[in-house]
């Protein structure tokens, strides 16, 4: 993805560049709203990460002006303003997604991927592979060691987000949101879906790929890979 980051916090921008460039993405940055608006209207980006509190022109106003100018590039607002009225203002200004700080870097990447996929009608094709596990996000076909895997729709959604985040963990809350939005069912239905996914992906194989992180969530990675501290900037994890 080609990502424009509009944020005046240099430390935050450096963290995003370090993580996302290491994941194969290309980034440009703007330190204020005016510059961000100029770049967004004069260059082509797959997605924009936009802060709220910006010098010269605040995030919501940048959004309004971009949409008024016909710019339909997906925009994710990344801000510390976490009250519902703020979120409503952001979405009404033209945001496609809204993520509050602090946040998990893998979650940010997955949300950006989803925005690009949605904007292009799933034309953003990505063949994912971890060890001998393969998943094609366009055809929705999965295999391990060359053998096709049978997955239910919920299992495919979980597999995609876990593979996109790999080797980092994905929180239970994020996985539940992927499956059910803001209204998860009663009981631990997520555990049941993870169990079914494990049966398909790992089965009786000795080299397990799906791992549980108590009080955090799940991760999909080869057993020898450790979870790095840089995969998070959320104090809860």
Quick rundown:
This protein has 237 residues and is α/β, with parallel strands linked by helices.
Give a verbal description of the structure.
This protein is α/β, with parallel strands linked by helices. Helices cover 39% and strands 20% of the residues. It has helices at residues 10-22, 33-42, 59-68, 84-93, 105-119, 153-165, 172-180, 189-201; strands at residues 2-6, 26-30, 47-50, 75-79, 97-100, 127-130, 133-136, 142-144, 147-148, 169-171, 210-213, 217-220. Strand 8 (142-144) and strand 9 (147-148) form a beta hairpin. The protein is elongated, with a radius of gyration of 19 Å.
Helicity, as a percent range: 25-40%
Examine the secondary-structure arrangement and name the CATH architecture of the largest domain: 3-Layer(aba) Sandwich
Strand count: 12
CATH topology of the largest domain: Rossmann fold
Q: Helices and strands, in N-to-C order?
A: EHEHEHEHEHEEEEHEHHEE
What's the layout of helices and strands?
Elements: E1 2-6, H1 10-22, E2 26-30, H2 33-42, E3 47-50, H3 59-68, E4 75-79, H4 84-93, E5 97-100, H5 105-119, E6 127-130, E7 133-136, E8 142-144, E9 147-148, H6 153-165, E10 169-171, H7 172-180, H8 189-201, E11 210-213, E12 217-220
Parallel strand pairs: 1-2, 1-3, 3-4, 4-5
Antiparallel strand pairs: 6-7, 7-8, 8-9, 10-12, 11-12
Helix pairs in contact: 2-3, 6-8
What tags apply to this protein structure?
Arc Repressor Mutant, subunit A; 237 residues; disordered C terminus; alpha/beta; Rossmann fold
């Amino acid at each position: 993805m080609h990502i424009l980051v509009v944020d005046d916090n240099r430390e935050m921008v450096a963290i995003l560049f370090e993580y996302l460039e290491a994941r194969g993405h290309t980034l440009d940055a703007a330190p204020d709203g005016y510059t961000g608006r100029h770049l967004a209207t004069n260059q082509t980006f797959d997605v924009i990460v936009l802060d709220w509190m910006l010098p010269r022109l605040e995030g919501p106003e940048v959004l309004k002006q971009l949409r008024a100018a016909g710019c339909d590039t997906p925009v994710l607002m990344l801000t510390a303003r976490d009250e519902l009225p703020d979120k409503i203002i952001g979405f009404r200004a033209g945001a496609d997604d809204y993520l509050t700080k602090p946040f998990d870097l893998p979650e940010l990447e997955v949300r950006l991927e989803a925005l690009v996929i949605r904007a292009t009608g799933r034309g953003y094709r990505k063949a994912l592979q971890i060890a001998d596990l393969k998943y094609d996000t366009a055809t929705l076909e999965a295999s391990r060691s060359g053998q096709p895997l049978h997955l239910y729709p919920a299992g495919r959604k979980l597999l995609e987000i876990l593979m996109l985040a790999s080797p980092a963990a994905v929180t239970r809350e994020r996985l539940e949101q992927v499956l059910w939005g803001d209204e998860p069912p009663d009981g631990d239905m997520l555990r049941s879906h993870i169990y079914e996914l494990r049966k398909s992906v790992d089965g009786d194989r000795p080299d397990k790929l799906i791992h549980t992180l108590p009080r955090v969530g799940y991760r999909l990675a080869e057993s020898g890979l450790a979870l790095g501290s840089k995969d998070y900037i959320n104090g809860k994890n």
